[in-house]
């Protein structure tokens, strides 16, 4: 399952996306957020949707059955708990959420892959970590820089991400890069750049699925 972060209609539906939903570990979080954007105005939801279609096509070509958590880039949500439920109900062998970050810290750039830790079930343990490492390794092979400001060696253990906390399938969240960094924004916004991310992520998933 591919989960393109956010959605095109989120910003115009604040009541719906600010509604609190279960986020795991006994906590609640807003249903969803609007996401970030480049300084030039290219939005994260548009990026994640475009990227998801590219990854989907690459995986489909290799015989992998792919489902998405949203049908287009025009709707609202789904909420983070619903996104997790879609993966759980589908029995997905791997769940990959796609995002990009929006840090304004000077020089902050690079990708990181979040996984749920401490794990709340078997899938969140070794399988999710193996998926995270496989995608990380292929992104590094593609020449993509690991994050200079979050996690270590492109990996980040998180206990606060609802979609990961609520997943009973091996799940990771890829923050592809920092949209507020001018150099990285150019890569994230270009067709060639997105294809590079897509190929690396698809290869990482294929490596994990074996
Ligand atoms: Zn995001």
Characterization of the model:
InterPro entries: MurNAc-LAA_cat, N-acetylmuramoyl_amidase_3. Pfam families: Amidase_3 (PF01520). Keywords: Hydrolase. Residues 30-40 have a biased composition (Polar residues). The protein is α/β, with parallel strands linked by helices and 210 residues long. It has a single domain (2-209), classed as Zn-dependent exopeptidases (Aminopeptidase), CATH 3.40.630.40. Helix content is 39%, strand content 17%. It is built from seven helices and seven strands; from the N terminus they run βαββααββαβαβαα. The protein has helices at residues 14-18, 44-61, 80-90, 126-141, 162-165, 182-189, 191-209; strands spanning 2-4, 20-24, 27-30, 95-101, 112-116, 155-158, 171-178. The radius of gyration is 15 Å and the shape is globular. Zinc ion is lined by residues 5-6, 35, 44, 99.
List keywords for this structure.
7 helices, globular, Aminopeptidase, alpha/beta, 210 residues
């Amino acid at each position: 399952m591919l989960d393109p972060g956010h959605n095109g209609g989120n910003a115009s539906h604040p009541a719906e996306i600010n509604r609190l939903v279960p986020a795991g570990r006994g906590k609640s979080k807003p249903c969803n957020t609007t996401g970030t954007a480049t300084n030039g105005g290219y939005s994260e939801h548009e990026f994640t949707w475009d990227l998801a279609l590219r990854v989907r096509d690459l995986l489909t070509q290799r015989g992998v059955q792919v489902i998405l958590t949203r049908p287009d880039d025009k709707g609202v949500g789904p909420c983070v708990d619903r996104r997790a439920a879609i993966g759980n109900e589908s029995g997905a062998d791997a769940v990959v959420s796609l995002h990009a970050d929006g840090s304004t810290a000077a020089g902050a750039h690079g990708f990181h892959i979040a996984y749920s830790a401490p794990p709340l079930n078997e899938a969140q343990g070794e399988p999710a970590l193996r998926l995270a490492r496989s995608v990380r390794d292929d992104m590094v092979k593609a020449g993509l820089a690991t994050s200079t400001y979050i996690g270590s060696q492109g990996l980040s253990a998180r206990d606060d991400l609802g979609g990961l906390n609520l997943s009973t399938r091996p799940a990771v969240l890829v923050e592809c890069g920092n949209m507020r960094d001018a150099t990285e924004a150019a890569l994230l916004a270009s067709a060639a750049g997105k294809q590079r991310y897509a190929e690396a992520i698809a290869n990482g998933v294929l490596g994990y699925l074996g």
